[in-house]
Design brief:
By secondary structure, this protein is mainly β. The chain has one domain (about 5-265). It has helices at about 5-15, 135-140, 145-155, 215-220; strands at about 35-45, 50-55, 65-70, 90-95, 105-110, 125-130, 165, 180, 195-200, 205-215, 225, 240, 245-250, 255-260, 265. The chain has a seven-stranded antiparallel beta sheet with strand order 4-5-6-10-9-8-7. The protein has a six-stranded antiparallel beta sheet with strand order 1-2-3-14-13-11. The radius of gyration is 19 Å and the shape is globular.
Length: about 280
């Protein structure tokens, strides 16, 4: 039986032989334009397969799509339980350097073998795919304790929240922050949960966005692209998506979950607000 290190080495050689190794960045660092193409990031073992991150640049030299791809075999051999003290089976994958201009730092691929709360809605095996704007060391500071609880509870200004999205109590999670959900999402209207889209906030600021998709939906190998409800303004400048996609490539035998239609959005400073903290 191969060790994980041996598997990773084998995959790395295979990537090189197929021409899929990470491409070098273009020379124009100051203008942050890149040569058209796909730049690969970190990959990891997932189930009996692998997962990897990437960003795709268009002919205009700007990022157009960012995502994660995992092999068909990754859906077999997944753990049926989470490690003790954890909420999910976590995989943090760094994005390629070429993705830095987008404002996203890394992707958290979380496998939930029994789903999570609220029961009756999201308690089915699924992946939470967090596109984080903050590095992991900053996320680790989100504790939900003391003054940090007030920061997690803080509601964003309405212009920073997509129309129809709400941030209900009880969605705060250590290491993540609060989750805003689409009140019109089908799973909240009595329909089975298949896939949905979340915005994450901390201290009133969005710092991750998150497609969620069930294993059962992935098993159907159905392609879907969903237009996103976007905020009227953003506190942090960056490239934000207009849609997300979940697709299966029959030829390559791999799934992809992507943020598409990346568009540069300027920053709009929030109003100064003091948070009252109970002592």
């Amino acid at each position: 039986m191969k060790t994980q290190a041996t598997k990773l080495a084998t995959i790395a050689v295979a990537l090189l032989l197929t021409g899929a190794a990470m491409r070098p960045a273009a020379a124009c660092e100051e203008c942050q334009l890149r040569k058209q193409g796909t730049y690969l990031g970190q990959f990891t073992i997932l189930g009996n397969g692998t997962a990897r991150t990437w960003v795709k640049y268009g002919v205009n030299g700007k990022p157009m799509t960012i995502g994660i791809t995992f092999s068909e075999t990754a859906l077999s051999g997944l753990p049926d339980a989470v490690p003790k003290g954890m909420m999910s089976v976590k995989h943090n994958l760094m994005l390629p350097d070429e993705a830095a201009v987008t404002g996203f730092d890394h992707i958290g691929l979380d496998w939930n073998p029994k789903g999570h709360q609220p029961n009756g809605i999201y308690d089915t095996p699924h992946f939470d795919i967090h596109f984080y704007m903050w590095p992991q060391e900053e996320l680790n500071k989100i504790t939900l304790k003391g003054a940090d609880k007030a920061r997690c509870d803080r509601q964003p200004e309405s212009r920073f929240l997509p129309t129809g999205y709400i941030m209900p109590p009880g969605t705060q999670v250590p290491g993540m922050g609060a989750h805003a959900i689409d009140s019109a999402a089908l799973e909240l209207q009595g329909k089975p949960f298949t896939h949905t889209f979340i915005y994450g906030y901390y201290n009133g600021r969005v710092h991750f966005i998150e497609p969620m998709v069930t294993k059962a939906f992935l098993d159907t190998k159905t392609d879907v692209t969903v237009s996103l409800k976007s905020p009227a303004a953003y506190q942090k400048a960056g490239y934000y998506p207009s849609s997300y996609s979940i697709k299966f490539d029959e030829l390559r035998k791999e799934y992809s979950v992507t943020l598409e239609g990346l568009t540069l959005r300027p920053s709009a400073p929030a109003k100064a607000t003091k948070i009252a903290v109970k002592k």
